[in-house]
Amino acid sequence: MATVSFPACTTVVLLDIEGTTTPITFVKDVLFPYIREHLEDHLSTHWEEDECKQDVHLLKKQIEEDIKQNRACPVHTVDQTVHTDEEKAIREVVEDVLWQMAADRKSTALKQLQGHMWRAAYTSGRIKGELYPDVVPSIKTWREHDLKVYIYSSGSVEAQKLLFGFSVDGNVLDLFDGHFDTTIGAKVDAKSYERIIDRIGCQPEEVTFLTDVTREAKAAEEAGMNVLLVVRPGNLELTDEESSHYNLITSFSHLQLTGCT
Questions:
Q1: How many whole angstroms separate alpha carbon 59 and alpha carbon 41?
Q2: Is the pLDDT of residue 26 over 80?
Q3: Average pLDDT in the 11-34 region?
Q4: CB contact at 8 A, 244 and 261
Q5: pTM of the predicted model as reported, rounded to 2 decimal places
Q6: What does the pLDDT look like over 78-126, one tens digit per residue?
């Protein structure tokens, strides 16, 4: 694929993770199976701890919101009172989490619990964050040319920092100027990108967003950002219209730096 130039006046690069910096297979075949395999043990071990109680509380709030908005959700409501049947309550949480994962939900409650579970896996060395080989060298080059680099992912900020802090390339967190997750809004909502622009403190046209998801790309465009679509092995196939509308790259190394004129 031919070299593509960063849009003129780019000072900030905003990166998606799954399918952009990290193979989808790492998320689907490593991270998610870890949750399914260890979920019940994690809840049983940490049930009375404040962090776990907060995770369960957020899951309950999510179900209440889904019911209020008439969205699909499990038939029960997660409950964690002091004297409840603990095993029954844990099974209900497991059922809810597995249901959300099967439905590919991006709820903050789900992502927070997952992040807490992955923390133990990363810090123990059982999991290392996988990055495409072009990612770290390219970001280093961008930073040498004074570009700021941020992450925006549906995974929690904690999960993001774990992936890059315990990656196959070591701790590369110093490559990033900040992290955003769904607490700032859904990735398919243009207002989320407007909030990110405001938080960073720049103009929309100064930001170039790299993602593999066209719905995210569309939302970022609506907010005034530049967009480059990342085509990696295993990513969703693009339509002819999408391929013609967006500039495409298959590697960060295909991006050529430009400046304002």
A1: 18
A2: yes
A3: 96
A4: no
A5: 0.85
A6: 555 544 588 889 999 999 999 999 998 888 899 999 999 999 999 999 9
Question: From its phi and psi, is residue 146 left (phi > 0), alpha (psi between -120 and 50) or beta?
Answer: left
Show contacts of 230-233: CB within 8 Å, 24+ apart: 230/16, 230/19, 230/20, 231/1, 232/19, 232/20, 232/23, 232/24, 232/132, 233/23
- Beta-carbon contacts of 45 under 8 Å, excluding residues fewer than 6 positions away, are none
Closest CA to 18 of 135, 119, 110: 135
Tokens of 176: 């990033």
- Residue pointed to by tokens 């196939």: 237
Query: Shortest CA distance to 34 belongs to which of 105, 106, 103, 128?
Result: 128
Rounded Cα distance, 30 and 37, in Å: 11
Alpha-helical segments (H) within 4-49: 24-26, 32-46
pLDDT in tens, 125-141: 999 999 999 999 999 99
Q: Phi-psi region for residue 213, left (φ > 0), alpha (ψ -120 to 50) or beta?
A: beta
Q: Kindly report the number of other CB atoms within 10 A of residue 8's CB atom.
A: 11
Nearest Cα to Cα of residue 95 among 40, 28, 30, 58: 40
